[in-house]
Every structure is written in C-alpha cells, then in structure tokens.
Amino acid sequence: MAAVAAPALIMPNAQNRYEVSRDDLPLSCPMPGMALWCSHPKVYLSIEATGKAKCPYCGAEYILID
C-alpha cells in the first residue's frame, strides 16, 4: 500500500499581506494550512465589515477579495 503524502504547510508570518476570499472565513491567523509550531497563538480576525484586517500578534494584513 502506497503512503499518501501530506500537503505542504505554508510558513506562517512569511508574508506581510495575504489575500483571502469568503471561502477562508471565519478568518484566523495563522490560517489553516500554516505550520503552527513556529507561530503565535491562533486569533480570529473580523474582516467582513471593512474588507481588511490586521493580526495583533504578527502584523500580517489580510485583504478580502471577491
């Protein structure tokens, strides 16, 4: 039986700006799919009202695209 490779994890805090879609909501930093071992605690960000959010831990900016 062949082993299934796990998807590669995205390095958290590697970028200063991330574009996200409505499929990514609810938005958290770090996002699902990011390595957690080298990041800050998960925090949920409110982005729906303004289309922008900034993580209070790492300063990453998130922009909601349609």
Secondary structure elements and pairings:
Blueprint: E1 17-20, E2 27-29, E3 43-45, E4 52-54, E5 61-64
Parallel strand pairs: 1-5
Antiparallel strand pairs: 2-3, 4-5
Instruction: Please count the helical segments.
Output: 0
Q: What spatial form do the alpha-carbon principal axes imply?
A: globular
Protein structure class: mainly beta
Count of extended strands: 5
SSE order, one letter for each helix or strand: EEEEE
What is the strand arrangement across the widest sheet? 1-5-4
How far apart the termini lie comes to: 41 Å
Strand content: 25-35%
Cα radius of gyration in angstroms? 13 Å
* Global mean pLDDT: 86
Largest sheet: 3 strands, mixed
- Secondary structure: helix percent: under 10%
Low-confidence sequence ranges: none
Write a structural description.
- It contains no helices and 5 strands.
- With 66 residues, it is mostly beta strands.
- The chain has a 3-stranded mixed beta sheet with strand order 1-5-4, with no helix packed on it.
- The chain is globular.
- The mean pLDDT is 86.
